[in-house]
Amino acid sequence: MADSTPVLETRGLHVSIDDKEILKGVDLAIYKGEVHALMGPNGSGKSTLSNTLMGHPSYKVTQGDILIKGQSVLGMSADERARMGLFLAFQYPMAIPGVSVVSFLRTALKSLRGEDVPVREFRKLLKEKMDLLEMDQSFAGRYVNDGFSGGEKKRNEILQMAMMQPEIAVLDETDSGLDIDALRTVANGVNRLIGPNLGILLITHYQRILNYIRPDYVHVLVDGRIVRSGGKEMAETLEAQGYDWLLRELGIRDEVEENGTREEVLI
User: Fold this and answer.
1) Distances in Å between the alpha carbon of 22 and those of 62, 202, 239?
2) Close Cβ partners of 239 (under 8 Å, ≥ 6 residues apart)
3) Alpha helices, DSSP H, located in the chain
4) Helix, strand or coil for residue 105?
5) Distances (CA, A) of 28 to 189, 201, 228
6) Rounded to whole angstroms, how far apart are CA atoms 175 and 197?
7) What pTM did the predictor assign?
8) For residue 41, what pLDDT band results from cuts at 50, 70 and 90?
9) What residues are paired with 28 via a beta bridge?
10) CA–CA separation, 263 vs 113, rounded Å?
11) Which domains does the chain possess?
12) pLDDT score for 258
C-alpha cells in the first residue's frame, strides 16, 4: 500500500524577497516514487521556490507551509531539512578549490548522519555509487567543481545525491548550460537513481531534459502560481508553442504589451 503522506508538500505557499511577493499561493504534493517537472518562463518564481524549499534566509515565507513527510520545516535550517531527507541540486554549483570530492562527500555524509562514517564503509559506498553512475574513480580525487566542465559539475551534483540517498530531490535547472551529450549523461545518472523511495521535483525552463527523464506530472508556474498541471504532453505543447499562448490565454501577455510595466526578471 502506497504511503498516503506526500514526501514533499507546499500548501498555499506565499514567498517574498526584499518585500516583493514572488510566490503567490503554490500548492504541490509529491509522493515517493514520483517525478514531477516544474516549468515556467523566466520570472515565474521557479528559482524562488527551490531556494525557499531548502531554507535560504533571503526568502521569506509570508503565508502557507512547507512539509516534509507531513512535518512543517519552516523553522528548520538547510542542514535540518537535509536530515529530513531533502536534497537540492543547484543550478550553478560552486567551486571549492583545495577540497577534494571525496573529502567533501565524507564530510557531508557525516553531517547528514550525525556521526563519522567508517572509512571502509564510505569507500565501499562511494565505489558502488560511482560504478552505478559510470564515473571514473579518479573523479573523486579532484577538487570540488574546480576546473570542471558544465557537465562535470552537474554529474558531481548527481553523485552527491546518490551518496546522500535523499527521499526528495529538487533538481534546479540541472540542464542549464549543458550540451546534448552532457545532458544525456546527466539524465542517465538521474534515471539510475529514480526508484520507489525517491520523489523528484525537476525544475526546468525547457522541455529537452524531459526527453530523457520522463515525468509523471508536469506543472506550469506563471506569475508565482501553478496555472496548469498535466502529463508529459503538457511539456511537449510548451516546446511546440512556447509560453506565449498560455500567457495570452491567462491575460498576462496582453497586460504586458498594453501597459509595458510588468518586470521581466529571472527569479
Assistant:
1) 11, 19, 25
2) 206, 207, 208
3) 46-54, 78-83, 101-113, 119-132, 150-164, 180-193, 232-241, 244-250, 252-259
4) helix
5) 25, 10, 12
6) 23
7) 0.88
8) confident
9) 10
10) 43
11) 8-96+166-259 (3.40.50.300)
12) 41
